[in-house]
## 1
Amino acid sequence: MRSETAEPETGASLALYLRRETRSAHDRVESSAFARRVAEGRLDLPTYVAYLHTMQSFHDEVESLVSASTDTHVRNLWREDMRRVPHINDDLVALERYASGMLPIIRSDPFAAFSGSVGTSPKRLIGLLYVAEGSRLGGRVIAQRLLAAYPDLGRSGLDYLTGYGVTTGKHWAHFRRSLDRLLLDDGGTAAALDGAQLGFDAIAVAFAGLGS
Ligand code: HEM
């Protein structure tokens, strides 16, 4: 649910603002068919491969748009080591043998709308980056569940989920400080929130097709 009532808090913490205002959007992702599979210990490898394809589309769209962005705030937030697509590509190669049992990949790409949306409001990319980076936190949960079901997997095919390893918390704290240092005006803050909502909403749509 998009927030239409809350006022942007210029000068306050953007990281806290995004966390608070997107809580229900994140809850929707966590109650999706895919997340329920994870929570109930029903995540199998073909579904995991389908999830990787979904996240590949998401990150590919975000990373392409960030690379092309000339917005100073977006450039200030982005670091090359945030790229996730190379890690997903490695995982998909490692898990190639499970692709045959994969769930059908959704044909309508919910991430295709990002481009037009960012075109009219470039600072929406800030919110999309917040969603992309924050997905590392839930990723740790997915990795734990997957390893519980497939102890022999080791780290094979888990590069995307375990990217920063034990320093994930430290990187997330750093990213949150970077958000706060942007010092956006009200318009920029509202655009960042729009972008984050857009990201979560598209993920929720995609995850609905990843389980039952
Ligand atoms: C199985 C699905 C998921 C689970 C179980 C999950 C779980 C969690 C948990 C436990 C946290 C808090 C971690 C902490 O504070 O250390 C978190 C935060 C977050 N997650 Fe997820 N997550 C899931 C999916 C996603 C996805 C798919 C995205 C985005 C693509 C996402 C984006 C975020 C963001 C942005 C935060 C940070 C919220 C904040 O500002 O503190 N999550 N998630």
## 2
Amino acid sequence: MMAAFDPEGAAPGMKVSSRDKLRDFNKLFSAADRVLVVISADPDAIASAMAASRLLSRRVENVTIACVNAVDRPDNLAMIRLLKVGLVPLAQVKPETFTRILLVDSQPSHHELMAGLPVTAVIDHHPETGAKAPFVDVRPNYGSTATILTEYLRAARLTPSRNLATALYHAIKTDTDDFKRQTLVEDLHAFQYLFRHANIALARRIGQADLRLEYLKYFKSALQTMRLRKGRVFVHLGPVSNPDICVIIADFFMRIHTVSWSIVSGTCDQKLVVIFRNDGQRKNAGRVAKESFGSFGSAGGHRTVARAEIPLTDIKSPPIDFKDDRKVAAWVVIRTEKRAGPQPSAPKPEAGEVKANG
Ligand SMILES: [Mn+2]
């Protein structure tokens, strides 16, 4: 039998048709169902849960979205607040009081709390883990789960509300890192569609909300104590409430066009955390992190981004006084300074002396 032309589906025989998938998905639910959508909250998971909730809102008795993690990233908090997302911690609900449980942007094996749930349906874009459930739609090539859910909404002929479209739009942007990561034409199509329905200014507001008010004191101390040598910025922040602060400050200094390396450290949970960033010009942050700190703790990363974490008790020769921020700062500089420089393309006597721009 010839397949009827399907404007929402993919080319016949080639890819998953979201219309077919939606039909199977809908069969799982009836009007008396109480549905629990379980996520590990990040923009894609939150948006996908909102979309699943929209798909089911008129088909079931109620839908609750619960997360296995504590939401504390500022951009996630902004998303939840500005888009009025109803989200509760999984610990606050009784899964056994629900008749259907849905996982979006996750698979059971991703989290022990998820693995223990009797899951009805899994919709995700992470690599296949052999999830067992009555309904599984895992598309590892997709840039985001939000793309899959956008296809479902379109197949169901449901126009997303402004807030839902904004959430999905932000999710695709986030998970594809503005299309610099794994992206399919399906992600672009979903994005293009959502663009017409989203509040772009609100999405931008959410995307740029990566700071907390309490972080400003670290900026102040970073600006006051930074050492700048040959385009390399060194900052030791001392005790920080969260290692993310070191990442934010390290990224911040890379925005200065003459800075080629940004190395920012801080102590948290009995560990020294060192964050490395560079401009990618003949440099290898992962190697520098490993050579500088690999003998003290875990250290590594990629060419432009890297990280080291050293237990504060483990440095014996010479012993480091981690209460003395100036000594720690000097130690980080000494460990990294010789290693963090441009690697010469041809052997040169002293790599540290090579100036990038002559
Ligand atoms: Mn995702």
